[in-house]
Amino acid sequence: MSDPLQPRATPRPALRGSPNHALFGATIGFFIGFGAVSLFGPTAHSFVRVMHLSPEQVGFLVAIPMLTGSLLRIPFGAWVDTTGGKLPFLILLVLSVIGIGGLYYMLLTLYPTHLGQQHYPLLLLFGALGGCGIATFSVGIGQVSYWFPKRNQGWALAAYAGFGNTSPGLVALILPLLIVFIGLWGAYLVSLGIVVAGIAAYLVLGHNAPFFQLRHEGLSREGAAAEAAACGQELFPQASALRALREAAAEWRTWALVLLYFTTFGGFLALTAWFPIYWQSFFRTTHWTAVILTAGFSLLSSLIRVPGGAWADRFGGEAVAALALLVLLAGALIMTLSGSFALSVSGELLVGAGMGVTNAAVFRLVPNYVPHAVGGAAGWVGGLGALGGFAVPPLLGHFVGTMGAAGYARGFLVYVVLAVASLALTGVLRLGPRRADPTMNPKAALSR
């Protein structure tokens, strides 16, 4: 009787794509999805001015894309374990472009004289849809992970997240210039065209890993796993998205990684929103100076993820995370105590570098600690961790409200506390017992 795990005697179906092609396609898709949400900022300001929204309405309006984009990372990240990623990726990108397109339509047809409070629910709906682009992150993490061997996970995931994360910084620099030269409607139309082109590029380049392609061709899970393993695939998924979430949730290290990511990526999102206020209010900089400093922080924190992932591959995710968190802690202490503009800029750079490298190290550890449910773990870590961008700004604002102008600096105590707690947690991860890795044996992985 033949072993069902042996490759078929019939010719193997031609597999589409390669690890590097899949990485390039997923990065383009995430870049477009994350950047599309950044288009909402200038538009939201235009709506606020003509609709006379209350502060509470403004706060919810600005938060809604981040909220939906964060929470959707959980189910869509887990869905990768059943489909391979391309379908959920495309659904999120299409929902995002519908939201951004709806906002553009409101600008084109109602702005500025016909907009009123009665349009606020519609504005929230389009903002929520636009936020779906943020959720592509966890989908791409799973999609890329299944293509690459474990020894290259850190570099691959860091390249994906690092280059994809640059889009908010680039949009913050380029979109205001477009608005100056061709107006709000023209800039928005150009941006929308770029988003649609990016979706088309992902459609062509965003191939699923071999296991999922072979499953689509009709092979059994066991047969597809055997042939995919022969092609070099090392990580294999759960049969159910819900099971992937449950398996990931049952692993305590998943929740440790969530808290680390809350500090560094959630903290990154919070500071991209807070820094323009901080620089203009605390140091009285010009608008463009604040924009450049914030964009520099965003780009540094994003791009340093790429070498950070390679360092995590070489030296280990825990060691690299610990060193990066020390850098973050040093930067946060400088910004807490400093009243000097130059010193605070250096603190900002240290915070950005520490956050970016830690982010890379965290997702280097996901396939190490939760190899049996990478998609589910990516959903939990990416989704709940990103909620830091929703939770931290009110804490920073509380310091200002209670301490006045000095609170802009003292608010960075939040990051001091988070960095210290994350360092302690990294030590626990390093010293904790390790579980056996079932994914190096496809039969064991698929029998779970």
Secondary structure layout plus pairing:
Blueprint: H1 19-38, H2 40-51, H3 55-71, H4 73-83, H5 86-109, H6 120-130, H7 136-147, H8 153-164, H9 167-205, H10 210-216, H11 221-230, H12 241-250, H13 252-282, H14 287-303, H15 305-315, H16 317-337, H17 341-369, H18 374-386, H19 388-403, H20 407-410, H21 413-431, H22 442-446
Helix pairs in contact: 1-5, 1-7, 1-8, 1-9, 2-3, 3-6, 3-18, 4-5, 4-7, 4-12, 4-18, 5-6, 5-7, 5-9, 7-8, 7-18, 8-15, 8-17, 9-14, 10-11, 12-18, 13-14, 13-17, 13-18, 13-19, 13-21, 14-17, 15-16, 15-17, 16-17, 16-21
Write structural notes for this entry.
By secondary structure, the chain is mainly α. It is 78% helix and 0% strand. It has helices spanning 19-38, 40-51, 55-71, 73-83, 86-109, 120-130, 136-147, 153-164, 167-205, 210-216, 221-230, 241-250, 252-282, 287-303, 305-315, 317-337, 341-369, 374-386, 388-403, 407-410, 413-431, 442-446. The radius of gyration is 22 Å and the shape is globular. The model is unreliable at 1-10 and 436-440 (pLDDT under 50).
Residue runs with pLDDT of under 50 for 5 or more positions: 1-10, 436-440
Helix share of residues? over 70%
Average pLDDT reading: 86
**Would you state the CATH class of the largest domain?**
Mainly Alpha
Largest sheet: none
Structural category? mainly alpha
Tell me the number of strands.
0
Strand content: under 5%
What best-fitting shape do the alpha-carbon axes yield?
globular
Count structural domains. Answer: 2
**Helix and strand succession?**
HHHHHHHHHHHHHHHHHHHHHH
CATH homologous superfamily of the largest domain, by name? MFS general substrate transporter like domains
CA gyration radius, whole angstroms:
22 Å
CATH architecture assignment of the largest domain: Up-down Bundle
Helical run tally = 22
CATH fold category name of the largest domain: Growth Hormone, Chain: A
Distance between the termini: 23 Å
